[in-house]
Each structure stands twice: as C-alpha cells, then as structure tokens.
Write a structure and sequence with these properties.
The complex is a heterotetramer, with two copies of chain A and two copies of chain B. Chain A is 29% helix and 19% strand. By secondary structure, chain A is α/β, with parallel strands linked by helices. Chain A has an eight-stranded parallel β-barrel with strand order 3-4-7-8-9-10-15-16, surrounded by six helices. Chain A has a four-stranded antiparallel sheet with strand order 5-6-14-11, with no helix packed on it. In chain A, strand 5 and strand 6 form a beta hairpin. In chain A, helix 2 packs parallel to helix 3 and helix 3 packs parallel to helix 4. Chain B is an alpha/beta fold. In chain B, the strands form three sheets. In chain B, strands 4-3-7-1-2-6-5 form a seven-stranded antiparallel sheet. In chain B, strands 11-10-9-8-12-13-16 form a seven-stranded mixed sheet, with helices on one face. Chain B is globular. In chain B, 51% of the residues are buried. Classes of the chains: A alpha/beta, B alpha/beta. Chains A and C meet through strand 11, helix 5 and helix 6 of A and strand 11, helix 5 and helix 6 of C. Bound molecules: flavin-adenine dinucleotide (FAD) (2 copies), flavin mononucleotide (2 copies) and FE2/S2 (inorganic) cluster (FES) (2 copies). One flavin-adenine dinucleotide (FAD) binds next to strand 4, strand 6 and helix 2 of chain B.
C-alpha cells in the first residue's frame, strides 16, 4: 500500500497530501457531504482578531474557467473560533490549520497568542496577502515586511507555521526566501491573483470592491509556474495551490516539487473532489509502483545544509 | 437543513411549460422526497468556461413517483447548456439546499406573488399551502400572456393575473393586483426579480402589511450553495449579513436591510 | 453613424478601436479569411535585428480557457521585414505597427533605425517583456530599465511609439509611469502571464522551454484589472489586451478606460472576431445613443496638464 | 493553398466505422470540393475550457453529393465533444488547410502505411491514388482486429494487415509488413503516431528506400492552423523549422530533421 503521508516540518504529519484551502471550506462545519476523514487537513477561513462583517455585496463573479471574490475576510473573530470551534475540532481525526489575517503585525500575533495551546488548533497559515494599514502596502509583496511578519509569528508560536504567498509580485522567490529565513516551517503557494470584471449593462464593476481575487482552473498554469520557482529555491516544504481540480492537476504540482496540495474553488462545484483526488493519487502511485509521493517530483529537493 | 444529496439524476422529460421557459423533470426519489417548497438545488453545467454550479428552485417534487421538476429560462451559457439536456441525459445536482418557505397549517389566507420566472418556485409552494389547509390567492405577473405558467400548474389557488402588455388580466405590474386583495391578516410568499421584491416592501408599507408576514425568495450569486464561500450575502436588518444559501433563499422580509440590498442580475 | 475612430497620440488615428495583437496575426499575410479593412491596425510578430529560428518544439499548450506559448520570437529579422513586407503594407488601407524585440537597448534601436522612414511602417510597439542579456532581468519588470529603453527608442523615431507592458510585476503603474515619462505616445497592456504545464504521463514540462506565456479568456479579469490601474494613472492613451473574445469583453476594456483593444488568441479560433467585435461596438454605441467610444469610459481620463 | 472556408456545416451522419472510432459526415459542398487528400480542417469544439480548434484530416470527400467525412477517436475533451455531435447538429469548421500528399499520375506503385488512427486520412488518399492510376499496396496496422478500418473503405488497394495482438493479419507492427513489399521504385505515403514514423525512417534506411520517396503526414499541436501562431513547428533538415500547418501536414521525409522531432502526444 503506497504511503500518502506528508511531513510539513516540525513533525507535523498528514495522512494525505490533499488539503482544503482557506475560504473554501469555512471552519469545517458546512460541508455535510464531505468525509473529513479523507482530508489531509482543513485550512480555515481567514481569521482576524475582531469579528468582521466582510464586504458589501456583490462579492463573487464567475469568469472564464475561474471566479473572482472579494469577501473581505468575513469571520467571527478569534475569540469565537477559540471558544466555539476549537473544542469541536479537538475531537476530529483531521487536523485543522487556522488561517490568520490582520492589518498589523500586532493583529497577527494577537490572533496566534489567543489560539496558542488551544486544543484543536494544529497549525497556523499566515495569509500575508493583507494590506498593512501602517505601511500602506501588502505584507506579501514586500520581502522585508513579509520577513518581519513571519519572524513575529514565529516567536509567538511553537505550532507548525505555514506562510501563504501571494503571486501578485515580480519575484515570488525573493518573498519566499525571506519567509523561509524568518522561520516558517513551510510555505503554501499561491493565494488569488488580483482581477476585475465590469458589468457592461450596468456600467460598473461587478464586485462592490471593484477588484477581487481570481481563483479556479484559469490560474492553474500561473500557480504551477510559481510553485516550480519556489520549490527550486527553498529547503522547506511547499504546498501547491491554484486551480487544482483533477488528479492530473494534483500530480502536476507534486511533480513540480510540492509536498502537498490545497483544493479551493473546486470544493464549491465538486464537494467530493478531495476524496476523489486522494484516491486517484494512491491509485497512481500503485500503478507506477512508487513507494511515496516524494518519488513523483521531477527535480531533487534542496536538502537542508547541516552546517 | 434537510439532508442534501450530491448525485446524478436522469432527465425523464424536457418540455416548454410556457414561452421562454424550459422544464426539466428528473428522476431521483431521495431528492424528490427531501425537497421542500422554496428550497433550491445547485445544478452542475458543462458549458464552456463555466465552473460554478447554477442555483435553481425546486419547481415541484412528487416523492410518490420519485420525480422532481425545475423550470428555468435561458439567460446565459449555463442555462443554455441545461436547456440542451434531453431525455436520458444525466444532470449532476446538489441539494436540496437552504431554507424553504415557512408554511404553518391553518386557515389564514396565503397570498403568493410571482414575478416573471419567480413563478418557477410556486407549484411546490401552492401544493404545500394546500396540504396545510391554507386558502391561496395567487398573484401572477408576466411580460405577456404566453409567458404565464398554465393555471393547471397552480391547482387550488385563486389565480389573478397581470401582464406588462395587457394581453392577459390586469394591464400592469403584479403588485398592482395587491390592491384587490384583503391583506389585513395574511401571509405573503413572494418570488421574483429583486427590484420587484423591493417595490413589494414599499407597497406592503402603504397597505400596512407587516414585513414579518412577508416571506421573500431571494436571488444572489451563489459560489458554493452550502455556506462555505460567503459570496451570497444579503444585508441583515440591524447590521451584518445573512447567507442567502443558508439563512435563505426564503427569508422573512423583516430580517432584511432593504436599503443595503443590491441586485446583481435584473433590470 | 457612431464614430469608432481612435487617436493613439502623435496624430496616429485609426478607423477602428479593434487591433490584432502581435504574434497572433503574423505579418498580416497569413489570414486569407480576414477582411483587413475591418481592422484598426495590425501589430506584427515581434521583430528582431537578426532572423531568429525560435524555440524547439513543443511551443504551445492549451490550458483551461487559455493557452501557453513559448515561440521564442521566431521571425525573419528586420532586414526581411523592411525589404519584403513593408513594400506590400504600403498599399494596404490598414496601418501596420511593427512589434520590436531585442536583448539590448542597442538591438531595439537598430531595428527602429532600419525601419524609420520606411513606407508601410505606421508605428512601433516595443515588446519590453524581453530579457536584457546585459542586466539579466526583463526590461519590463524594472521601471528604470523600461524608462531607458523607451527613451532610447523615442529618440530614434518620429513615428508613434507604443510600449507594451508586461503584467508580471508587483506594480504595473510604476512601470507605466516610467514609460510615459520617457516619451511613449501610448501604452498597450498587457502581454502574457508567465505560466507552466506539466505532462504527467511523460513526467516533463509540456513546453520545451518549461515556462511560457498564458493568454486567452482565462487572463481577462487580470488584464482588465491591470488596464483599470494603468488608465487611472496615465495621461497617454492605453490599449487594452488580454482574453478579449466578445463584444462585451471589448466593452469592459473600453469602459475601464482603454481607447482601443487588441485581439490575440481569439484570432486563432475565430478569424473573423475583429470584424464581429468592430460591428458589435458600432451597434452598441448606436443602441445607447453614444457619439463616440470615449463616452463609454466609467472614469474621466486624466487630462494632460498644459503647464 | 486551396481556398479555405470558415463555415458551419450540418452533421448528416454519425457512425462507428471501427472499434474506438467515430465518423462524422458533414454536408458542405464548398469544403467537399476544395479538400485534397492529406489536408486537414480545424474544427471548433464546445468543450468546457477548450479555446483552440482541433485539427482533423479529411477522411474522404464526395464533391458530387457535397459531403465530407472525418474519422477520429476520443482522446480528450474536444474529441469527446465532437463525438457527442448528432445528426442535425452544426459543426464549425475552418479549412481545408495545409499541404496534402503530392500524388503524381503514373504506374509507379504507391505504398500506403497507416498506423492506428493514422488510417483516418487514407480513404481520400486511396481514392486520389486510384484516380492517378497508381497501383496501391496498403499496409494497415492496428492494436487489434476490431480497430481495423473496413476493407470496403479502401477499395482498390491491395490490403495487408498487421495487429499488435495477432487477431488479424501479421502478428506485429505495420512496419514489419514493409519487408514483404518490393520498395525498389515506389512512393510511400505514411500516417500514424510520430514514433511509428520515426521507426519507418529507420526501416526505410535499411531497405535503401530514399527519404525523398517517402511522404509523411505529421501531427503537432496546432494553435491557428494557418501560419500565424508559429506553434506547430517541425525541425527542418539543415536547420530552422517547418510550419506543420502550412508546409505540412504532409511533408517529404527528406525535408525533416528527424533527430529534432519530438512527439507531444503518443506513447
Ligand atoms: C436560490 C436561487 C433559485 C433560483 N431559481 C431559479 C429558477 O427556478 N428558475 C430560473 O430560471 N432561475 C432561477 N434562478 C436564477 C438562476 O440561478 C440563473 O438564471 C442562472 O444561474 C443563470 O446562469 P447562466 O450561466 O445561464 O447565466 P450567466 O449570466 O452566464 O451566469 C454567470 C454567473 O452568474 C450567475 N447568475 C446569473 N444570473 C443569476 C441569478 N439570477 N441568480 C443567481 N446567480 C445568477 C450564474 O450562476 C453564474 O455563476 C435562481 C437563483 C437563485 C439564487
Ligand atoms: C494535421 C492533423 C490531423 C489530424 N487528424 C486526425 C484524424 O483524422 N483523426 C484523429 O482521430 N485525430 C487526428 N489528429 C489528432 C487530433 O487533432 C487530436 O486527437 C485532437 O486534437 C485531440 O483533442 P482533444 O481535445 O480530444 O484532446 P486533448 O488532449 O484534451 O487536447 C488538448 C490539446 O492538445 C491538442 N492535441 C491533443 N492530441 C493531439 C494530437 N495528436 N495532435 C495535435 N494536437 C493534439 C488538442 O488539439 C488540444 O489543443 C490530427 C492532428 C493533426 C495535427
Ligand atoms: C471565496 C474565496 C475565499 C477565500 N478566502 C481566503 C482566505 O480567507 N484566506 C486565504 O488565505 N485564502 C483565501 N482564498 C484563497 C484560496 O485559499 C486559494 O488560495 C485560491 O482560491 C486558489 O486556489 P483555487 O484556485 O483552488 O481556488 C479564498 C478563495 C476564495 C475563492
Ligand atoms: C502564440 C503567441 C505569440 C505571441 N507573440 C508575441 C510577440 O511576438 N510579441 C508580443 O509583444 N506579444 C506576443 N504575444 C502576446 C499577445 O500579443 C497578447 O499580448 C497576449 O496573447 C494576450 O492577449 P490575448 O489573451 O487576447 O491573446 C503572443 C501571444 C501568443 C498567444
Ligand atoms: S453560496 Fe457560498 S456561502 Fe452562500
Ligand atoms: S498552427 Fe499556428 S502556425 Fe501552424
């Protein structure tokens, strides 16, 4: 039987390389049709220090093989997550990774502090695609800011720390390196691409926020390129995200060097995609006579130097 | 929430119930048994470039023969694809989803208000009202006579009609028909384009019909249909948002912040 | 009758806002089914100083609502263009814009020098998405490099100068401003997004060059966002490019502030798309009772300060 | 170049000529009259996410009744969509495109070599060879007997068969059949997976059959099909590239740099 186990660093092991991505699975409660046991892990909706109502509608729009979203981080706030959700996660077989968002380094750290040591919280994923109110630009587009944020989060938690990269940059490798150097255990790539749609009948942007994040099959080639670049430069594990819909899509990311994948938009149309892809990967390994997922990669990983 | 199913169902019949609309009858006993009036299903479409399912109200369900019906018009690529399904083809559906209309038994009159394709949801609603013993006045508006759902599909209701071009019933809007109805002690069930629902709220105000007695079926974009994407919000009275797919699509009018309502699709 | 005329600056006027994009219409000779008279202008394949064979196959791959290409600037070189093509263009009703590519500022200038004053050449479009061999990175991702290249091209020609922006940057507005300040008459946005596809059966990248440029409907929301940002910041005209397939698509870009559009990938599947979109725009203006294309834009243009 | 048309044509017949293949017969007099053996058409497909046309060889054309036929197998979304076309449906086609086989009149024997679905192009080729008075030996290879094109579709040719599983004819590769043919003074017309064509070139070498006497029909990805995207290149002997869509798909083997050939699709 092929081993689909994955190690994300810091001894954080998953039974499957197939995770569900932040914002596409809520907090794990709203998908009655999904067998959670089949998931490698659940990444929660972006969670902030205080509750957020999110953006005014219209928040989503379909595009060619993709969708735009501008939800605005609607979430109940970390207190509710800690007291109402985590106690239930504690009894689940699947680990829950909390996606953390904020407008200042202090915000992020406060969310982590509140959840640190809370049973049911397995790890953190930093969503660094958020605008930094103090310094005007996104954490994720500036290597120094991204490094500072990661370092601050690192010193706030003993749990596995995953940093989610934004692809809306000239040089994603520079950001990834800064995040690795600042102590991230692994990175997930990528978040959505900034896009826009205009309603020509109404003569206005479709989304109330004008622009939003593009996800879905449309971005898969871009995401794969980003993952290929990052896995070629980092020592820590990389989790691939972006338009993954089929077993073949997942294989592309694993061959590109990702140790695992996150499914996002596909969860909306095919609630059982994660299970199907998990099964498909196992079948592929067995058909190819491969022992583990690592043997899929096209390039050798960069081994940590033990100097 | 009624237990949703994710399944393929075979098309047993495809027809044109009225001008500009298509009706698909699917065979699926579990779905037919689970569906409640006002709930919806997310139907997968194989149209080029389409990745999201399309939300459709259950038009009617007949558990005894395991059939469920959907009535829709062609507005874009997804509905065009659905309209091309033929007898024997399979349709991939997820549902029933969301909250249907709350229908209490008793003899208080029910007033149904259907604008345009909003009528699609009503065969099931009328059936449920009849089963609850409620007398039903049905106000049915359409652009023109040929686009009215045949009376036979609304058996048992007292039907009043309005058309924009006057080819049948009152020459005007379905809301003009409200004036002819005693609304002192009734429950209103309304479905139609958002602009019509907004006007209904104004009219109700004038007629001193309390919003708590009005239930509306809303249409917003739907990403997932199950509460995970947060893309379908409707402004909540008192702040924050309702999830149209979970708190709705059928919602009591007094729970909604009508000033914050946007319509992404009509008019 | 609505006026579909467009002014791209320097008195360069087109009868239609619908152009065909570089690399998707050759040099104008290989599309027997297209009525060239319906086009606002033809932008040629990227042209270099010396002839180029281009990349080894495989060069293209279809993706969800898009395609990847890595052609490698296969072209007959500027000498052939000047002597064999330009004389024929001279007699065409449609203006031909030569897309210029190179690996050094000298390359670009040499191509322009050779074509300057050649009858049949109406304008130049600088493809700044090329790698600068001397300084390692693309001209188009570095504001200073992009500005220097534009300035050099500017001083080499009296013809209208269009600079084509790459979207693979953190801040496209910064590049656009540098190009405007350096004397470009207009900018075209955008070129392709860097992407990749892996053949999981063969365990190798589909494209011989590993990565390639993504085009087609998949990128439309991203391109529209880029154009929306650029039109909000520049005084010079902006030509919108990216996934335009329908009249509605073209309207989105014009409403976003573009004065014209270029059709690329759609030319492959629908050789008559340009004519259809040109007709559709005219019909739309008339149906809406609009006099000209300018009245479509959602925001007022930034007017040039006459200080 | 023969004058290409961009048009819709109606499906007049859909059938299964052999196991694993579908045949679509379209009615379009202009296209039928213009098509030459070995040329191809770019067919538009309505499959989800597909944006490029799909290249298909003209299997046969009957100008007298204005019909043209295509034979293909299902390998992905586009061909699956085409296979779902039924009688009466329209198919959007662009063509005929590219260079067909060069067929000179005379009595020099012609040897046709078809591997797998490569046979799809040959009914038209055999017809053209017959018309030119050429004697034809037809070497037809397939995985198994049921995947062989019926003899009736290759009327007039002397047919020799090979199957990988030995269920018909020689148990082996179609190229093994070459040994049984006198190739001293013949023209070879070959179509099949690129790996087969490459092996053919090696075998030809051994048999001292000059490459200039071998014409091959190539398969490369096609973006435009008309010479504008430069995506379909085949390495040219002596350097540089041929455009498969314009210089081909039928090309004399001595014009190709076989070492540089890649196969994006088979094996
Ligand atoms: C709860 C609910 C129940 C509905 N019931 C019915 C019904 O019984 N009969 C019927 O004819 N229509 C119904 N609709 C509207 C129906 O969902 C849309 O007409 C359909 O989604 C259009 O898809 P399309 O691809 O043809 O149009 P396109 O315009 O191509 O769709 C583009 C995107 O916009 C979305 N969209 C477009 N119009 C609407 C709309 N009005 N509401 C929600 N999303 C939309 C599509 O789902 C898709 O994601 C219902 C909508 C909702 C939310
Ligand atoms: C000149 C020419 C003539 C052909 N004639 C025939 C024929 O008569 N019968 C037949 O069955 N097949 C023929 N083919 C192959 C046919 O084009 C492919 O099988 C078809 O494009 C597959 O499309 P798909 O969407 O089903 O497969 P997918 O794998 O989903 O296609 C993905 C992309 O790859 C391209 N592609 C995949 N396979 C091929 C291939 N073998 N050659 C070129 N492009 C490919 C598709 O066009 C599409 O762009 C021919 C190819 C060429 C180049
Ligand atoms: C509606 C929606 C909401 C999302 N919310 C978040 C979020 O809160 N935090 C985050 O890091 N990513 C969020 N994402 C991004 C996804 O996690 C994922 O990175 C992206 O959608 C690309 O993957 P996909 O193409 O498989 O969807 C969201 C995506 C969508 C579609
Ligand atoms: C096959 C191919 C070749 C291209 N060659 C060039 C080129 O030589 N120079 C250039 O500036 N852009 C080139 N482009 C980019 C297009 O001009 C256009 O910017 C891009 O395809 C986006 O538009 P689209 O989505 O409408 O295709 C090429 C695009 C394709 C698909
Ligand atoms: S449609 Fe996704 S939350 Fe309602
Ligand atoms: S297919 Fe585009 S040039 Fe040959």
């Amino acid at each position: 039987m092929a081993d689909l186990g994955v190690d994300l660093g810091r001894g954080f092991r998953l039974r499957s390389p197939v995770l569900v991505a932040s914002g596409t699975f809520g907090y794990g409660f709203d998908a009655p049709l999904v067998d959670r046991g089949a998931l490698g892990a659940i990444v929660t909706k972006g969670t902030t220090l205080r509750p957020r109502d999110g953006n005014r509608p219209t928040r989503i729009a379909e595009t060619a093989s993709g969708m735009l979203n501008a939800i605005g981080l609607q979430n109940p706030g970390v207190e509710h997550v800690a007291t109402a959700f985590a106690p239930l996660w504690k009894n689940w077989a699947v680990p829950v990774i909390v996606n953390v968002a904020g407008e200042s380094i202090e915000d992020y750290v406060a969310v982590i502090d509140r959840l640190e040591g809370t049973p049911g919280v397995a790890a953190f994923e930093l969503n660094i695609s958020c605008p930094n109110v103090a310094r005007g630009l996104q954490f994720g587009v500036d290597a120094r800011l991204a490094g500072e944020l990661t370092a601050a989060a690192r010193s706030a938690t003993r749990l596995p720390l995953m940093v989610k990269l934004t692809p809306n940059v000239t040089d994603i490798v520079a950001i990834a390196r800064a995040v690795e150097d600042a102590g991230a255990d692994c990175v997930s790539a990528i978040n959505t691409y900034v896009g826009m749609a205009i309603d020509v009948r109404r003569r206005r942007a479709v989304l109330d926020r004008e622009s939003g994040g593009l996800s879905g099959p449309a971005i898969k080639p871009l995401a794969l390129q980003a993952v290929w670049q990052v896995t070629g430069a980092l020592r820590i594990p990389v989790i691939g995200i972006g338009g993954i819909t089929t077993v073949a899509d997942a294989l592309e990311f694993l061959m590109a060097g990702a140790v695992a994948v996150q499914l996002g938009t596909v969860n909306y149309s095919r609630p059982q995609a994660a299970r199907e892809i998990d099964d498909g990967l196992r079948a592929h390994l067995e058909a190819q006579g491969l022992r583990d997922l690592g043997s899929l990669r096209l390039r050798q990983p960069i081994v940590a130097s033990h100097a | 929430m009624s237990p949703a199913v994710l399944t393929e169902a075979a098309v047993v019949e495809r027809s044109i119930p009225m001008a500009g609309a298509v009706e698909l009858v699917l065979h699926h006993p579990t779905a037919a048994a689970a569906a409640r009036a006002g709930q919806f299903f997310q139907l997968a479409v194989g149209a080029p470039g389409a990745i999201l399912r399309r939300p459709y109200s259950v038009a009617w369900a007949r558990p005894e023969i395991g059939q469920i019906g959907f009535i829709f018009n062609i507005v874009g690529t997804g509905s065009a694809w659905l309209a091309s399904r033929q007898r024997g083809h399979a349709v991939d559906l997820l549902g029933p989803l969301g909250q249907g209309f709350v229908i209490e038994p008793g003899n208080r009159p029910a007033v149904c208000i259907a604008g345009g394709l909003g009528v699609a949801a009503f065969p099931a609603v009328v059936t449920a009202l009849m089963a609850a013993g409620r007398p039903v006045v049905f106000l049915h508006g359409a652009r023109t006579a040929s686009q009215l759902l045949p009376v036979s599909r609304l058996q048992g209701a007292e039907l009043r009609v309005a058309t924009d071009d006057g080819t049948a019933g009152l020459h005007g809007s379905v809301l003009d028909l409200l004036a002819s109805v005693a609304v002192s002690d009734v429950d209103v069930f309304a479905c139609g384009p958002t602009p019509m629902l907004r006007r209904l709220i104004e009219v109700a105000q004038r007629l001193e019909l309390p919003r708590s007695r009005v239930q509306v079926a809303l249409e917003t974009p739907m990403g997932c249909g199950v509460g995970t994407c947060l893309g379908c919000v409707t402004p909540r009275r008192g702040g924050g948002y309702l999830l149209t797919c979970q708190d709705g699509p059928c919602i009591r009018a007094d729970r909604i912040d009508w000033d914050g309502m946007v319509d992404a699709f009509h008019g």
